[in-house]
Write a structure and sequence with these properties.
This protein has helices spanning 15-35, 113-118, 143-157, 162-166, 196-207, and strands spanning 134-135, 171-179, 185-192, 212-213, 215-217, 220-222, 224-232. By secondary structure, it is of the alpha+beta class.
Length: 235
């Protein structure tokens, strides 16, 4: 296509001239700004009014409200009556004490201490008795020795389930059971378990244990609650 613009009117040729004129004007403005000075000594006149002519504000009075004082309670005098001393011994031997609700014809029977002991329900297991059960009395003489022997025997009998080992399951299984009057183990239950696999293995191991020396209460063998635990640890 042919260029229809007149080459004489092309402003691109005069671009450098316009740029130079612009730079010269900007330089003149910058130089003029450096030469510009302000007279700091000239201060405008300030008018100060006379303080005496200012009207004083009326004083503000604040009234103090007195709180009503609570009446002081009056203290009553305490009069002490004279104490009459009475002899402990009563000379009148004819004095009789009769219960108004009692039937004179009814006979009163008192049970002996032995009869009261027989009324205790031995079927209900005790929590604490005078003599606690002793595990394997042939080898142990005290409750503490029997408890240590019981834990050692459980550790020998128990077998760590393979499923629990593969699943990395471990922890303590707490068991609760009754030591009967004959020394047998009954009513086994899990107080706090870890996993059904470990709980069942703990119950199985406890059923393999031997007899106890039964607990004694008032010289009689009774049923006693007993607790123990088995600690399953992966090594």
């Amino acid at each position: 296509m042919e260029n229809k613009k007149n080459p004489k009117l092309n402003l691109e040729k005069k671009r450098t001239i316009f740029f130079q004129f612009g730079m010269i004007i900007a330089l003149i403005i910058v130089l003029y700004s450096f030469d510009f000075k302000t007279d700091l000594n000239s201060v405008d006149e300030m008018k100060i009014e006379n303080i005496d002519e200012i009207e004083e504000a009326p004083p503000i009075s604040i009234m103090q409200i007195k709180k009503p004082q609570a009446p002081i309670p009056k203290i009553k005098k305490i009069e002490l009556e004279k104490i009459i001393l009475v002899d402990d011994e009563i000379e009148d031997s004819n004095l009789e004490i009769i219960d108004s609700e009692a039937n004179l014809d009814e006979e009163i029977t008192f049970n002996s201490i032995d009869e009261m002991d027989e009324e205790i329900d031995d079927s209900t297991p005790f929590i604490v008795v005078e003599e606690m059960p002793i595990y394997n009395p042939k080898r142990n003489l005290t409750y503490q020795e029997g408890l240590e022997d019981l834990h050692a025997s459980l550790n020998r009998v128990v077998k760590y389930p393979a499923i629990a080992q593969e699943s990395n399951i471990q922890g303590k299984v707490f068991l609760k059971f009754v030591v009967t009057r004959t020394g047998d183990i009954q009513n086994i239950s899990v107080l706090r378990g870890v996993d059904p696999v470990l709980n069942n293995e703990a119950i199985r191991a406890l059923k393999k244990m031997g007899k106890f020396q039964p607990g004694m209460q008032r010289g009689k063998p009774v049923n006693v609650w007993f607790t123990c635990f088995i600690n399953f640890i992966l090594q």
